[in-house]
């Protein structure tokens, strides 16, 4: 993963780019900075806007893009960036997330001081409270950070889809002699009301930070755009500890980075914005790919993005791979070539273990172990693992949770009013189906 001919720029070691490396300038910033950084991934959110899709799992554990979990993108960014001391803070419905990390992310070697440490909410500071906010989730794990003794701490959400070289952000943080650096993305001013938004000066130093403002500050010289926080922060470790301890003893604080920590330190310390376009990994640095898949509509659309001929997010880039755990399954199989039934899939991603038996799949995402029986039609849909779709069934614009059994002849996604009687229909007309909705019990579905 690292080459052996380091270059020197701004006093930082960088590795030469492998041919085809898709970072913006073609160079990975794997350095002593990344090796001496501890990453803590905040992965404890309920994900309630994903409706029943998070009935049995936390949002970072939700399946995505045929074979991954959402958290795999953040974990892969860390590993590919050379940050291999990682803590994952968990809280709600964490069993499947913990199992996934244990099975799929055990390849880091503790003998070389590389690890992923699970940090469940254990009420370490106050025996009456779980994690109260993003800052409190880090504060409750200060003992672990002290033992790790890193130079920098990277704090990042575990529930977004993107590819980013955190080493570039660390290099900028060091070059600017920052106390804290906040990753940000350029968004339309109308969309900025859903984010923490920052105002910056000509050097990208943050001069104001407001959480979900009604009137967001705009980018200098561009009144139609704003800089929105991505929930990715780099702190000098000593500075982080000081601020967390101060905030923990501040009456009325909600113990949150966006609401409390950042607004307090902006006027008192060196806080800089780091633009995602400067460290994104992908084909188009001018339009970097980052998605919050926090609603059924956003989740469906992001999965549909992957079925395009040339997706904006490249899953086939071998120089910045997305790592995961997947069962050992046989190849996907397409059977029957009769005139009246033919097993075909077009403009779709079909995962291992799937059998398309005389059925038609169009513009869809099928996860592992899906079986589609004869004369069934699946269109514009996301089918999670181990689903069985009966003969003559029709699915359009659906998200089908894992282990569902779609009965023979059932039609879903054609009549929204009929679907609402049994299933969840999103504002944009995407139908979510779970085994419980089908009356198939609440069997364990990790």
UniProtKB/TrEMBL annotation:
GO terms, molecular function = ATP binding; glucose-1-phosphate adenylyltransferase activity
Question: What does the record give as EC number?
Answer: 2.7.7.27
* Region described as Disordered: spans on this chain: 1-25
Residue intervals of the Glucose-1-phosphate adenylyltransferase/Bifunctional protein GlmU-like C-terminal hexapeptide domain = 330-433
Keywords associated with the record? ATP-binding, Carbohydrate metabolism, Glycogen biosynthesis, Glycogen metabolism, Nucleotide-binding, Nucleotidyltransferase, Transferase
- Assembly: Homotetramer.
Protein's name in the database: Glucose-1-phosphate adenylyltransferase
- The species this protein belongs to is Pseudomonas linyingensis
């Amino acid at each position: 993963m690292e080459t052996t001919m380091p270059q020197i720029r701004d006093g930082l070691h960088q590795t030469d780019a492998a041919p085809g490396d898709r970072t913006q300038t073609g160079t990975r910033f794997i350095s002593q900075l990344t090796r001496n950084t501890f990453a803590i991934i905040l992965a404890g959110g309920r994900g309630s806007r994903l409706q029943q899709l998070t009935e049995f799992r936390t949002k970072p554990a939700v399946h995505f893009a045929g074979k991954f979990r959402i958290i795999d993108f953040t974990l892969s960014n860390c590993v590919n960036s050379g940050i291999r001391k990682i803590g994952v803070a968990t809280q709600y419905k964490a069993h499947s997330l913990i199992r996934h990390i244990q099975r799929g992310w055990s390849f880091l070697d503790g003998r070389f001081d590389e690890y992923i440490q699970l940090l469940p909410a254990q009420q370490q500071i106050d025996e009456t409270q779980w994690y109260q906010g993003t800052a409190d989730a880090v504060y409750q794990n200060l003992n672990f950070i002290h033992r790790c003794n890193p130079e920098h701490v990277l704090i990042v959400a575990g529930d977004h889809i993107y590819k980013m070289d955190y080493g570039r952000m660390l290099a900028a943080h060091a070059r600017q002699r920052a106390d804290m650096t906040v990753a940000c993305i350029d968004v339309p001013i109308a969309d900025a009301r859903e984010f923490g938004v920052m105002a910056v000066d000509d050097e990208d130093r943050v001069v104001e930070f407001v959480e979900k403002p009604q009137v967001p500050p705009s980018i200098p010289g561009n009144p139609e755009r704003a800089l929105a926080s991505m929930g990715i922060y780099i702190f000098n470790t000593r500075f982080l500890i000081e601020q967390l301890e101060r905030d923990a003893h501040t009456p009325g604080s909600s113990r949150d980075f966006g609401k409390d920590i950042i607004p307090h330190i902006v006027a008192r310390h060196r806080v800089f914005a780091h633009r995602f376009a400067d460290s994104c990994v992908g084909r188009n640095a001018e339009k970097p790919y980052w998605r919050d898949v926090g609603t059924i509509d956003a989740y469906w659309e992001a999965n549909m993005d992957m079925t395009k001929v040339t997706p904006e997010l490249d899953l086939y880039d071998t120089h910045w791979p997305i790592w995961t755990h997947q069962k050992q399954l046989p190849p996907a199989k397409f059977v029957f070539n009769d005139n009246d039934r033919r097993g075909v899939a077009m403009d779709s991603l079909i995962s291992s273990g799937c059998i398309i038996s005389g059925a038609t799949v169009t513009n869809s995402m099928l996860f592992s172990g899906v079986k589609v029986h004869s004369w069934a039609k699946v269109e514009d849909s996301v089918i999670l693992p181990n689903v069985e779709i009966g003969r003559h069934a029709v699915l359009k614009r659906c998200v089908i949770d894992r282990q569902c059994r779609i009965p023979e002849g059932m039609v879903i996604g054609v009549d929204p009013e009929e679907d609402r009687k049994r299933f969840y229909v999103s504002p944009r007309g995407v139908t979510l189906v779970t085994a419980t909705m089908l009356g198939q019990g609440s069997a364990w579905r990790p």
